[in-house]
Structure formats: structure tokens, C-alpha cells
Amino acid sequence: MKKLSLGLLKESLIVASSLILSAPLSAAVDIVEIDGSSTVYPIAEAVAEEFQIETGIKVTVGVSGTGGGFKKFCRGDTVISNASRPIKAKEIKKCDEAGIDFIEIPVAFDALTVVVNKGNDWANELTIEELKKIWEPAAQGKITNWNQVRPSFPDMPLKLYGPGADSGTFDYFTEAVNGESKAIRGDFTASEDDNIIVKGVAGDKGGMGYFGLAYFTENSETLKAVKIKNAAGKFIMPSLEAAQNGSYNPLSRPLFIYLNAKKAAFDVNVKKFVDFFLNNAKEFSAEVGYVPFTDKEYTAIIDHYKKLKTGTAFAKPAIGLSVEEILKLSASN
Length: 333
Fold this sequence. Notes:
Layout: H1 6-22, E1 31-36, H2 41-55, E2 58-61, H3 65-73, E3 80-83, H4 89-97, E4 102-111, E5 113-117, E6 125-126, H5 128-135, H6 146-149, E7 159-162, H7 168-178, E8 189-190, H8 194-202, E9 207-211, H9 213-218, E10 223-225, E11 227-229, E12 235-236, H10 240-244, E13 252-260, H11 261-266, H12 268-287, H13 295-306, H14 323-332
Parallel strand pairs: 1-2, 1-3, 6-11, 7-8, 7-9
Antiparallel strand pairs: 3-13, 4-13, 5-9, 5-10, 11-12
Helix pairs in contact: 2-12, 12-13, 13-14
């Protein structure tokens, strides 16, 4: 069979999407299968629960990390992949090899949060340089005590907990702090389950970890968030407001869902779910502790989705640009 060009494929998807609005489809999936980021999981799970109540259509939401989710997505095992970072070139290649085109949808903003034990009364604020000193590969087996981070800190063992290598949070943190994705010391407790990180830090006075803001909000009674020094030289506490106004940098980042483009166009149940997700993303993102985009940005995101434009608009960092501006640049290319 002759392979369709990308342009013809996009045209066929647009035509198919319009047909969905006017005619019932019989080949809809029985279950909308989602997997991927543990960070995006609280949003996706909240949307899925409400969607199932309203429609009776079953939705499953797994948690295998952003990288693990993309592996399943690019094999065609799932129709939606949650991601706490943009898709990588090697993952795009895997999808291409499997004949899977994708639509990239930003859904909310996150403030990646560094946490310590509730009994920690010394590390109230840290610089990015100090985080690098703690987490960089050269720190392995060497930076093992809090007073090695800062002389005024106590003589107490430093125990580290963080996401595993399949996590988009891991990728983002290592790049923002250590300057290179996946560059990190190896002697820390790693898990794709953020709840394990919560328990580890909560049970260890010398513990430190990091994950999305929603998990800190949910566990603020047992953990303490650390203020981070931003580019302007101010120590900022992670919060919805600080992420939204840009002052909590460089640890703020967009969160995504990736859609199988053919399913999004041809499958009525998938389309119903995505429409429901985007129409309620603002409410559910705020409800679970993440930072909603503005109404204007959600309008741009929905417009981007309706055009069924495939590929990524976030392959390279776009410093100072809003999500709306990034999507507009992508549409013009």
C-alpha cells in the first residue's frame, strides 16, 4: 500500500474529524487507555473519574513514568500518553517507525517542588548551585552530609529520594539543575511512584526529594517545601501564583498529554474524552494543585487540537514565550 504523505494524512484526519460530528461510529474503543507521567496522573485521573460518571465510557490511567508511557504509546498500546516533559527525538522516531502520528496538548503548568522533612529547620531556602552540589554526578559518595552543602547546616546525614530515569520530572530536574538531562548521582533512592518519595522524606529527618507541586500540596502536613533562588536573585516558594507569574524559575514547566492522532480523529469515545478533558482542564488542574493556563491560552490549545496538527511545538526551550505564542509559532511552520 502506498504511504500517505504527511500533508495528505493531516487532510484525511481533518475530514474524518468533521465526519465524527455528523455520523455515529461503530468502531469505538471500549476502554480509553492512558499511561505515563506520575506528575500528570492526578489531573488525568480526576478527569477520567468524572468522565466515566457522565458517560459510562471506561478510562484506565496507568503510571509508568513519562518515558515508560511513551514506550507504550509508540507501540500502540495506549491512545493517550501523560508527559511531564516534551517528547524526545528518539521517542518520535519510535512512533514514526510504528506509523503513529501524535498530537501534543499542553494541559497545565507545574512548579517542581524540592521537599525536606518537616523536622528540618535549617534548609528553608536553597540556590540552584547548592542543588547542583547535592545532585550532580560528581557528588556521588562525596556529598553525604548536610554541612557539606552549607557550613551552617548541621552535621547530619543527607538522604536523597527522587524519581527514576523513566520520569519526565527526573529529566526536567536534571536538566534545570545539572545542565544535562539524566546527569545525576546514582546513590539515591529512586522510584516512579511519588508516594514512595513522600514516605522516604517524611520518615527521614535528613531526607530531601523532589516532585510536582500537587504531591507536596497533598502531603504538606508531613513535608516542608524549600524556597528556591530564582534568576532575579530572590528566594521563591513554589506555588500556583509563583509558577503562573514566572517568578518560580527555573523549576516551572508545562505538562502535556499526547494523543494518537488517528484515534483522536476516528474514534468517537477517544474524541469525547479529549473534548471533556480540554473543556475541564482548568478546573481539574487547579483542583489537584497544579497551575491552570489562562482562558486565552486554553482557547489557543483547543484550537490547536481541533486543527489536528501533529508533531511537537516544544522540541526546543522557548524562553519568555507563553504557551499560546509557542502554538502560534508551531502553526505557522
